[in-house]
């Protein structure tokens, strides 16, 4: 399969009053055509900022992509002008967000909001766009599309709104759909429906999905390939079955251990000790060292690089570097 | 909607009735009246005049008469000007309205544009400059800016007339008349706009800053919309919503005249007439005008509620 998007050494920093935050720090990843890549990690690990960097929507001033390349369709997205990027946004790459309730404009009709990208990207007339909007609403499984098109966001439920967001996102047949925690705000039955729908659209149109989540259940169900992020860096990545079967990085191991298992009553759920480090106080080290049960001296002073530790599986951890050295 | 309007209008009538009672008693209970001021009159003549004007009747009866006439559209007779109150209003109010309408329009236009731009470029040099200028304009008293501008533009540069609505002795008609009025109203309009634009700009700026951070703005950008569309179609509409409340307050302000500005620029507006009537204790005129403001305030509130309903689909009227 061909690479659809390839990110090389992406770094996005935020200048805050108390100092520089490296929200995304030298991250490289790729998504192939028709593939679902999941980015997993705790809040604040840089998953969403990675997505926003691709979209060119990192909030300025303050946030800035300081380094890297994002190759998409033969172009480096970071070198494009704002206008060129705008023709890609919502067209070749589209995005859905975590909070469907607040992601739609409260004073505009659902129809108008679906029609907007159709009019700009597909150059449809208002009338055609409206017809297409009704089709799209039906396509995302909402009945009474003709009424919904003229209703306002507050008149629909969260699940319906997320379907509308999906309708907007798929309206221009994107090559890449970025879904930033699309089901976090929804209840479990709706979650499954939304994920099914995403997968179904993926199958139909061979689009790729970059799914950002902290829910390992979602990962197991959806992903082809998994990327685990911690404090702005990729700590482990690999093909989904392998990663779940034999996680290499202690952080991934911890994450998988802290996942509740269905039908098993545990007295206490495992949790990784300690807390995510303060991004302002990071020094050259493995950022996970003070929470890691295998912490060694080198972990405190040097940063491990992402290395292939098994077939189709990479991890950034000194445990494996040592193993290589002492073979 | 019509059920709501019926309910609202009946409330309005109750409020206005209470307001009329309050306004009437305020003026009726204040010691002294138009006649007691006049030292040239003998006590006998004063008593005679009070008899004629009905001022010797019990207060409640006088209120009843006033209300009855008011309901028939007759707000009495100005004692000082010897004309019906409504005729006087008609003569003066439109002059005030002209100033207020133009300056309100300019104030809102400038405030929206500058507010949006400085919110969009928050903490930029433009934003900082605007904030400094706004605080300067807000801190200076109107009589100071007024006199200062008269000194520069009317006295020193002689570009604009220092006051009045028409050049003394002018009998221009048609376009020439309009041109003359425009020349005369420029300075007062500038001063009124300067005074109002500061707080309103800050208001729009902070509304806009809140709105720009909302998720739906991010969605609009993610769709690939142009920045102008994002700002004016998606953000501004939401940022303007809370300002609808202010529209209701603008209505009495449009007709209420401005005491200080009209005095400084010698503008023949209702504000000056009102001020003058205070000195003369011309109570029928004062009562009539205060009542008019009460009516406009109540209507303004109703209008802003209805506008809110039209502009924001989430607002339901009950």
Which strand order do you get reading across the main beta sheet of chain B? 1-2
- Say what the CATH topology of the largest domain in chain A is: Rossmann fold
- The count of domains of chain A is 2
Mean pLDDT of chain B: 89
The coarse silhouette of chain B is globular
Using a beta-carbon cutoff below 8 angstroms, give the protein chain pair with the largest interface and the number of residues from each chain.
A-B, 29 and 24 residues
Individual helix count of chain A: 13
What CATH first level of the largest domain in chain A would be assigned? Alpha Beta
Question: How do the SSEs of chain B run, as a string of H and E?
Answer: HHHEEHHHHHHHHHH
Helix content of chain B: over 70%
Q: In DSSP terms, counting alpha (H) and pi (I) runs of 4 or more, how many helices of chain B?
A: 13
GO cellular component, one term (chain B): plasma membrane
Protein name (chain B): ABC transporter permease subunit
Pfam family, one (chain B): BPD_transp_1
Domain ABC transmembrane type-1 (chain B): 93-304
